[in-house]
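We were asked to recover a plausible sequence for a given structure. The inputs and outputs are reproduced exactly as logged, with field labels preserved.

PROBLEM: sequence recovery
POSITIONS: 423
GIVEN STRUCTURE:
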């Protein structure tokens, strides 16, 4: 049902181009010689390719296309949430359709202890909860990471109540047509989306706000949020250290901003873990450590026993002033020196998020972070854009690589000529 809805939306979008030949003519005539080479390359790629950018193998697990491991990982941040409401089934299905390597999610907890896919601890901004008058008396004020927050908190609602809500797009400048159509999903429903994908798709769940969850939700036998989180992963067969045979069959990174949670589960699962790092003025929510402390060589030497990498906010790696990027820090080089991967967040296509150095072009930004900074994975709201960039520059199949070299050669020849402009 969800696939049909998403595909229908995509088809409607394509109808705006009228017909392919008219679209190509319009683009070519209105581009200068430099841009012409680029767009010609893209059009030739589209015209010459009779198959999707990523193969669609049989649903038989033995013949599923494996996870690619030769280039940085494409991580669908809360699904393809640039197009569809975040952390919903259609958002994850869309990301898989667009070629993501991992679907990412934030895990919080319902009042009755069910693990849910939702980013904010309150429901106000990304669901229609405010339209449900029967929940008006649930508004509460709690201390969250050292500050008071008021709203309708997810842990004050049962699973049954949460399932009556519908998701909505977080940002007003993004497509609002899907608001109120898709329900919140559980951790287990999210896992099943990845397992049932037509190729191997990894999961990238976050242990979100564990201190707050453990304060307000209690499980029997003294269990805590992190324990239940790991139990669900084991239930669905997720195991194995990074790049092991078991891991490649069902890839998974566990992430958290709380280092104590990652240390707590160290002996409970050998799945690879990523330590998330916030802005420079934000302390860790559980240990109250500063950015300087958790990015020091001493701390990297300590934390590498428990994690395989870090996930920093990208503007802490490359500082920004007046929307221009400054000289990069040595964070990536130092992390790599301790054999830690670096998966920065969050890459977005909209102009307001693209620094001026990148000419408001997400492909230039991807090129900078992959080829200049040298990161190992990228969290993106627009997984299709990252996938297309990587397929054009570092194709996943030898056939595509040969075709790309040929098209690049043709493009370099065409750049010498400028098409006449239409008057």
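RECOVERED SEQUENCE:
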């Amino acid at each position: 049902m969800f696939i049909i809805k998403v595909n229908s939306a995509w088809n409607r979008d394509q109808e705006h181009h009228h017909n392919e030949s008219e679209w190509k003519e319009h683009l070519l005539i209105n581009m200068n010689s430099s841009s012409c080479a680029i767009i010609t390359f893209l059009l030739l790629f589209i015209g010459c390719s009779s198959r999707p950018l990523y193969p669609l193998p049989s649903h038989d697990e033995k013949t599923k296309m494996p996870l690619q491991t030769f280039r940085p990982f494409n991580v669908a941040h809360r699904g393809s949430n640039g197009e569809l409401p975040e952390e919903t089934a259609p958002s994850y299905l869309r990301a898989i359709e667009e070629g993501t390597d991992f679907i990412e999610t934030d895990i919080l907890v319902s009042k009755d202890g069910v693990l849910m896919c939702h980013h904010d601890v309150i429901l106000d901004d990304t669901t229609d909860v405010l339209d449900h008058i029967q929940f008006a008396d649930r508004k509460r004020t709690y201390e969250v990471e050292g500050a008071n927050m008021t709203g309708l908190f997810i842990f004050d609602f049962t699973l049954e109540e949460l399932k009556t809500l519908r998701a909505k797009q977080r940002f007003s400048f993004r497509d609002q047509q899907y608001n109120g159509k898709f329900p919140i999903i559980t951790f287990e429903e999210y896992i099943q989306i990845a397992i049932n994908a037509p190729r191997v798709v990894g999961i990238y769940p976050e242990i979100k706000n564990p201190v707050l969850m453990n304060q307000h939700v209690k499980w029997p036998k003294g269990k805590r949020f992190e324990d239940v989180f790991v139990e669900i992963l084991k239930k669905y067969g997720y195991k194995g250290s990074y790049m092991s045979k078991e891991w490649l069959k069902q890839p998974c990174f566990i992430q958290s901003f709380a280092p104590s949670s990652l240390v707590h589960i160290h002996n409970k699962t050998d799945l690879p873990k990523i330590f998330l790092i916030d802005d420079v003025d934000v302390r860790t929510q559980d240990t109250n450590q500063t950015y300087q402390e958790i990015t020091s060589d001493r701390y990297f030497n300590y934390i590498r026993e428990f994690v395989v990498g870090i996930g920093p906010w990208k503007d802490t790696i490359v500082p920004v002033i007046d929307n221009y990027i400054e000289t990069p820090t040595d964070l990536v080089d130092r992390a790599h020196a301790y054999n830690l991967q670096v998966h920065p967040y969050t890459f977005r296509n909209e102009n307001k998020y693209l620094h001026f150095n990148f000419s408001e072009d997400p492909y230039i930004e991807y090129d900078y972070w992959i080829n200049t900074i040298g990161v190992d994975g990228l969290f993106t709201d627009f997984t299709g854009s990252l996938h297309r960039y990587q397929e054009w520059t570092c194709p996943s199949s030898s056939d595509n690589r040969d075709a790309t070299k040929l098209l690049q050669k043709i493009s370099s020849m065409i750049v010498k000529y400028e098409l006449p402009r239409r008057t």
